[in-house]
Hints:
- By secondary structure, the chain is an alpha/beta fold.
- It contains 14 helices and 19 strands.
- The protein has helices spanning 32-38, 44-50, 86-103, 119-133, 163-187, 195-209, 218-223, 227-233, 287-302, 347-358, 374-380, 392-405, 438-447, 482-493, and strands at 4-8, 20-24, 61-65, 73-78, 105-112, 150-158, 212-216, 241-248, 257-267, 307-317, 329-331, 337-339, 365-370, 385-388, 409-411, 429-430, 455-459, 465-466, 476-477.
- An 8-stranded mixed β-sheet has the order 7-8-10-9-13-17-14-15, sandwiched between helices. It has a 6-stranded mixed β-sheet with strand order 1-6-5-2-4-3, with helices on one face. It has a 3-stranded mixed β-sheet with strand order 11-12-16.
- Helix 5 runs antiparallel to helix 9 and helix 8 (227-233) runs antiparallel to helix 10 (347-358).
- The longest helix is centred in the middle third of the chain and has 25 residues, at 163-187.
- The chain is elongated.
- The mean pLDDT is 96.
Amino acid sequence: MPFSLQLSHAAPASVDSPLLAIVLSQDLTLDDALRAVDSPLAGAIQRSIARRDFRGGRDETMLFVGGDTGAHRVLLVGRGSAPLTRATARRAAAIAARQAGKLGTGAMHLVLAGGDANADAIEGLALGAAAGSWAYPDLQAQPPEKDRRARLESVTVLGADTDAVRAGFAAGAAVAEGQAIAKRLGMMPGNVCTPETFVEVGREIAARHGMTLTVLGRAEMEQEKMGSFLCVAQGTPEEPRLVALEYRGGAPDQQPVVLIGKGLCFDTGGISIKPAPEMEWMKFDMSGAGGVMGAMDAIGRLKLPVNVVGIIGSTTNMPSGTAVKPGDVVRASNGKTIEIINTDAEGRLVLADLLVFAKRFNPAIAIDAATLTGAIVIGLGANAVGVFGKDQSAVDEVLAAGAASGEPGWPLPLWDEYKEQIKSDVADLKNTGGRAAGSITAALFLQEFVDGYPWVHLDVAGTAYSQVDLGWIPKGPTGTPVGTFVEIVRARARR
C-alpha cells in the first residue's frame, strides 16, 4: 500500500491508535491534553519525567504500552533544546516514524507537546513522518510472513483547527511527495533509472499538473550544437535526454524561476575511470535532476502563483571505444571550446549546455543543483550544501531558502583569481582546474555559460545522499535539494 498522511484536529486522548508519538522539548511540558493521555497509563509518563528516565534530549525515545483501546502504545520523542523549527520538528517526527517501523505498528498518530504546533512545526511533522517511513523495497524479496513487521503506511498528524495549521500540513505533504520522487529516482540502480526514466517521470508530472513537457534526444541536441553535453553521452548507446517542464502559475509575462539538475544515471568516470571501491554509489549522480523533478511535482501540488521551469540533462558516463578522451576539445552551444582534462569532470559539461538552454526562458533567477565535486564533501562534509554565485541578492535568497527548509548551505567565493586554474593552452577553458579549490573552479567553469540572468549553483555532493545511517533517516537518498527549490518558489509567492 502507498504511504498516506492525514491531518486531524482530534484530542490526543481521544484517538484509537496503534501508536501515539509525542514530541517533547527538554522543558518536558505536558499540557492538559497530554496529561489526559497519561491518565490511562496511571501517570507513567509524568513519573518517568520526574525521575529523569526521559529527559527530552534530541533523538531520545521512550516507549509505554497502553491498553487495547485509545493509544495502544505511547512513544515519547525528544527534540532537544534547540528552538522549534520546521527542521527540528522534521527530525523528531522522522525518529518517531522509524521507531514505528521497527515496532511494526502500521499506523501512527503524531503530536507536538506543549501546544507548540504552529504551521511551520506541523509542516515539519508531515515532512519527518514521510522521511522516517520512506523505503525502497521494490527489488527485495519479502521475508517469511512470520518474520514480517508491518510497514508504516499511515501517519495522522494532530494539530489545531486553524487555517494556518491546515496550510502547513498541506505544504509538508506536498514537499514530502516531491522528496519521495527524488529519493525513489536516486535509490533506483543505474540499470533501472535511465535517461528515459526521467522522460517517463516528467510526463507523469506534466499530466498531473497541466505542465508543458519538452524532450530533446541526441539528434535534437546536435541541432542545438550541445557539444559539451553530447561529449559525455558519446560513450554510451543509451539515448541522452534533456527534459524541460514548464509550470505556469504566475502571470503570462512573469519571468520564471528556472531549476536545473544534473542527471548522470551512472558515472564510471569515463576513460578517467573511478576507483572500483564504492563506485556503486555513483547511481546517485542524478540527484540534482531528481531534485528538480521532485520540486516540480511539489510546486504543482501547491499550485504556487509563480512561473517555474525545471530542466534536467540525463545520460551515463561510460568508458568505451567512442568515449570522449582526455585532451579532446569540444564546443558548447554558446560557442565556447572546452579542453577535456578529466572525463570524470563530466557533470559540469552537461550543465554547461543546460545553462545556455535556460536563457531562452528569460529567467528571473536560475538555480542549478548537482552532485558535482568530491571537493565539497572534503570542505563541508554531509552537513551543508555548497552555494556559489556572483549575484549576492540571489545567493542570499537561496541561503535563506535552504535554512528554512532544513537544507542549510554555505557560501564559497567565486574570485577571478581562481580562473587561472581553468585556462587552457588549446581551448577557451579546461573542464577542471585540478584538486585545489576543486568546487570553486567547477562553479567558475559553469559561470562561463551563464549569460544575462541571476544564477546560483548548489553543489549537493555531500548532502543529496548519505553512505551512513543518519539516525533520523537511513543511509541512501536524503531528498535534498527538493526543500530548497520549493522554498525559493514559496518565498517568491509570498512577495
